[in-house]
Structures are given as structure tokens and as C-alpha cells.
Prior knowledge:
Elements: E1 3-6, E2 23-26, E3 32-35, E4 40-46, E5 51-56, E6 63-69, E7 72-77, E8 85-88, E9 95-97, E10 105-111, E11 114-119, E12 127-130, E13 137-139, E14 147-153, E15 156-161, E16 169-173
Parallel strand pairs: 1-4
Antiparallel strand pairs: 1-3, 2-3, 4-5, 6-7, 7-8, 8-9, 10-11, 11-12, 12-13, 14-15, 15-16
Amino acid sequence: MPVYTGVNSVARNVKDISVGVNGVARKVIGGWVGVGGVAREFWGAKPPGSVWTIRQSAADNLWYSVCYGNGMFVAVANTGTGNRVMTSPNGIDWTARNAAADNSWRSVCYGNGMFVAVANDGTGNRVMTSPDGIDWTIRTSAANNQWQSVCYGNGMFVAVASNGTGNRVMTSPG
């Protein structure tokens, strides 16, 4: 899955890229990263995101989500063996990392000093956390739903699922 990045970019510019994009993250001061497609990364340094340069990802996985926090871009994938996480301090140079489980990781976010990722498969282990994006710990999910997205705001992590009966939202204090 490709990763796209650019300086001073806006989301609407991503539509000009020829492959699908699954997730986009913005570094606080300049720089964007987006993931999608098949094992490539894209870096765009020209304002306002008019040019995206293809870069190689750390592993040949289907990268699904990316976020920025604590000086690090972190991406998660739903394919691969052991290496379903990759990190980068600059959005260009990526290092493969071991996920806490070989689940189909769908979303990652950062808040209050913690990265949190959610998966749409696994048994009781559909959440993993990391303080640095490198070392991950499995957490028990509230339900074995197909968790699709997680975000952080106002002191709370919130995840949403595409299935479940009356329990498609999971929250955790940050």
C-alpha cells in the first residue's frame, strides 16, 4: 500500500494520485503522509501538495492507516507476517515494526502520549497500544466487532465498527 506525503497539502489534492488512498495524516508543522495501494510510499514536497513522489515502504504490505504523533509517523497494515507496523521520523525513511498480533489493522491514531490501533479481526485482541510506535501491546477489545477507525479527542479514544448489535462504538479514556 503506498504512503503519500507532502508539505502544505490539503486532502483534496490526493484525488490526483492514480491509486487509492486509505488514510492521511498531517504533521503539525508541514508535511502530509497518506497510505494506500500496494507497497509504495509517496512524498510531496512542493506546495501545496501538487507533486507526490513515489517511495518504497518498509514492507510489501497493504498499508491501511497512518497517523503522526510524538515526532513519528506510524502506519498499520492488514497484511504481512509480524511486520504490520512501520514508522518514520520524516515520512520518507520507513522501518518495519512488529505488530502485537497479525490482525487486519485498519486504523491508528495518537493521543495523550499513546498510539492506539484497531483491527477488524482477531479474538479479543483487536486493539493494540504503543507509547512510541515501535513496541506494541495487545489490549482486550470491548467486543469482537470489525473495528474500522479510531480517533482521539477531548481526552477520549473512540473506535467505530462496521458490525455488532448495539455495540458499534468503543471508548477508552486517554
